[in-house]
């Protein structure tokens, strides 16, 4: 039952209900109001971050439609990298957060499967977007934007490989405290690489929306400032929990 999001009604309706026979003392402890308030505010921030992410990325996708057919690889680069590095991979991080809407009713193992599916799908889109650079006839391939994007994709690949060894679905261990020392090290490395990949992808995205070509396409010059602020906001909200866990780990072993 601990691995399942459930309430009293689903226990009554399910066939895996646990029945206690004999005198049993059950103690129900409500969480402190301050903790509940923090969770409520964080859940609201997650919803706001998802709306800001949708607004900003949809704007960039519309921009990718402005390219002519002769520059289709440039349009594909913008589209695929935005979908992979900014939408799907960030949504994959949120799939492990129990305050996110899709993860709230799920088992821990199902959340991990959703995380694995989204991250690998996003990684495939990001790699395809990086490959299109070499067919796009850009004037220079070694800009700050391209280097941060390639670094983000490289970090994501290493993160995905380490994740395959961390999330062993055949293992009975569900929590990091139950992992072996080597698997626990891989889990911490996985979180660190994933956080760096998301950070670098947002840096790459911000450098992209501040390019002259994108700013000239906008109907108002100041609109790109909002895209930058939105990106910073949803990146901070999404990375808050994994970074908090990493800081706790570093403090614990320091």
Short characterization:
With 254 residues, this protein is mainly alpha-helical.
Characterization of the model:
The chain has 254 residues and is mainly alpha-helical. It has one domain (8-253): Four Helix Bundle (Hemerythrin (Met), subunit A) (Up-down Bundle), CATH 1.20.120.1770. Helices cover 69% and strands 0% of the residues. The protein is built from eight helices and no strands. The protein has helices at 8-13, 33-64, 72-94, 108-131, 144-166, 181-209, 212-217, 223-253. The longest helix has 32 residues, at 33-64. The model is unreliable at 1-13 (pLDDT under 50).
The proportion of strand residues reads: under 5%
CATH-defined architecture: Up-down Bundle
Residue share in helix: 55-70%
The span between the termini is 35 Å
Q: What best-fitting shape do the alpha-carbon axes yield?
A: globular
The name CATH uses for the topology is Four Helix Bundle (Hemerythrin (Met), subunit A)
Our count of domains comes out at: 1
The largest β sheet comes out as:
none
Q: Classify the secondary structure makeup into a structural class.
A: mainly alpha
Query: How many helices does DSSP assign?
Result: 8
Cα-based radius of gyration, to the nearest Å: 21 Å
Mean pLDDT: 83
Please tally the β strands and state the result: 0
CATH top level class name:
Mainly Alpha
Instruction: Give helix and strand order, one letter per element, not per position.
Output: HHHHHHHH
